[in-house]
Design brief:
This protein has 491 residues and is of the alpha+beta class. It has 18 helices and 15 strands.
Length: 491
């Protein structure tokens, strides 16, 4: 069924509903409802000697496949509306990189009954806050917080672009948004310090066949080649109730809210849920090194990158804790080695980039101008070797876990952030109430488990190395590869 048939089906359902000829979705009112308790606003649950805050929520589904999460929070007369489409860069075919992010922009450019930029204007007129959209490797999110009496407006707007966007798409709209996205790409890569260098590193790890290669933003060539038909096909495949989750959190009446959800989303026709893509996982079988002549950054940058388990897969949490031990806080290992003990670097970061299929683990350092980049690389490796011989202290692991826990708990203070937490856990764990269970997993991580993650995943001959040196000093400062024999130079 094409977008035109889908539009016609939505129009018939909507017309019937307005005429009183259609019944509301039985799922919204009679289907079995799953009530998940993350915590109560007045109580808590105890896990391994620690206290976990609790928040009550309800999850159910409409007949057309839309998942709905409701959470009551009466502290303020506000309601957060948060829609996740389960589509990100991973859904993009070769030659179609950047489509999910492009669509994030298109979703604000009008739908059949909300022309042009009226979506944002209508919300701004009623005092919206936090109106935005984001795209990552595995999902696209749209969210806003409105006064409680304007919830119906927000739901109507979200439903209209979910079911009625395609008729409003035009070549002129596509061209205008394409130009905006290309400019955003230039700001983040071509014109940003180390942007192109880090893209080279990413491309060395993810082959052309893997959808993560486009880094979400996509390539200029793929964006230029995108046609209106391409964009409409992408919309038809992924932007439908069966591939979306709506979370409403705030000062709501659950029964009245369910009625509004059914009124605006229940009339959208069912749509085939997209099939999960089968993509071969990337692998690193030997060390890669990329030497880059940096055109924007003014000091050298070095980075080591490994492939690590995807989000929620065995070992993922242990690697995240390892990243905290190495790079988070003034007591972290890499900060101490490179900034305190040796003064070799200006800045150090250790990042676990969590993605569903496969994650990446990076150790980055901006190098002092008078220091050879390979001296920093050697110091990083020496610190990893030291940790392999002298195990991580349990108190370091406990400190890292406490940081993760405090960040997650503090995120629950704002209603809009709660909605995002529920969506995140629903998308990756299949349970919007997985908050307490996730904290329990982290609290159970031991120093031995972190050491095992270090030994299994941060292997010297399964990493990629980036050395980016500014043009003025590249010939003098760039050092030969420190890779093991047989090290492959990335193209």
């Amino acid at each position: 069924m094409t977008w035109k048939a889908r539009f016609a089906a939505a129009a018939l359902a909507s017309t019937a509903a307005l005429a009183g000829e259609a019944t509301t979705s039985t799922t919204a009112t009679t289907a079995t409802t799953t009530t998940t308790t993350v915590a109560t606003t007045t109580g808590s649950v105890s896990t391994a000697g620690a206290t976990t805050p609790s928040l009550a929520l309800v999850k159910y589904a409409l007949d057309n496949g839309l998942e709905v999460i409701l959470h009551e929070d009466h502290r303020q007369p506000l309601v957060a509306v948060n829609v996740w489409y389960h589509v990100g860069a991973f859904a993009e075919e070769p030659g179609k990189s950047g489509f999910a992010h492009l669509f994030e922009h298109l979703m604000f450019q009008g739908s059949a009954h909300v022309p042009g930029d009226k979506h944002a204007r209508y919300l701004e007129e009623v005092g919206v806050s936090g109106l935005n959209g984001t795209t990552d490797f595995d999902r696209t999110a749209f969210f806003e917080t409105v006064p409680k009496n304007e919830l119906e407006l927000a739901l109507w707007l979200e439903a209209d672009r979910m079911g009625w966007l395609a008729p409003a798409l035009s070549t002129a709209v596509l061209d205008e948004r394409r130009a905006v996205v290309k400019d955003e790409r230039r700001q983040r890569f071509e014109d940003a310090p180390y942007g192109i260098a880090r893209e080279k590193l990413w491309h060395a790890v993810f082959p052309p066949s893997h959808p993560y290669r486009g880094m979400g933003i996509g390539s200029i060539a793929d964006l230029d080649n995108a046609t209106l038909d391409d964009v409409r096909r992408f919309y038809d495949s992924y932007y439908a109730p069966s591939n979306a989750t709506l979370c409403i959190a705030g000062d709501i009446d659950p029964l009245a809210t369910r009625a509004l959800v059914d009124k605006y989303f229940g009339t959208l026709p069912p749509w085939p849920r997209p099939r999960p893509r089968a993509v071969a996982a990337p692998t690193l079988t030997q060390e890669l090194r990329i030497d880059h002549e940096e055109a924007v950054g003014t000091v050298p940058l070095v980075e080591m990158l490994w492939l690590t388990p995807g989000r929620g897969k065995p070992g993922h949490r242990e690697v995240e804790v390892l990243a905290r031990v190495l790079g988070d806080g003034i007591a972290s290992k890499m900060r101490d080695a490179l900034l305190v003990q040796s003064d070799l670097a200006v800045e150090v970061a250790v990042v676990q980039q969590a993605m569903a299929e496969v994650s990446t683990f990076s150790i980055m350092a901006t190098v002092r101008p008078e220091v050879a980049p390979d001296e920093v690389l050697n110091t990083i490796q020496s610190q990893l070797d030291y940790l392999a011989d002298v195990p991580v202290a349990p108190e370091d692991v406990a400190r890292a876990v406490k940081r993760i826990e405090s960040e997650r708990v503090f995120a629950l203070q704002e209603t809009a952030a709660r909605a995002d937490v529920f969506q995140n856990d629903n998308h990756y764990a299949g349970d919007p109430g997985a908050f307490s269970a996730e904290l329990s997993h982290y609290r159970a991580i031991t120093a031995d488990a972190v050491m095992a993650a270090l030994a299994q995943h941060l292997v010297k001959d399964r990493r990629a190395i980036l050395v980016a040196v500014p043009k003025a000093t590249s010939h003098a400062a760039a050092a030969p590869s420190t890779g093991a024999p047989g090290t492959k130079e990335a193209p």
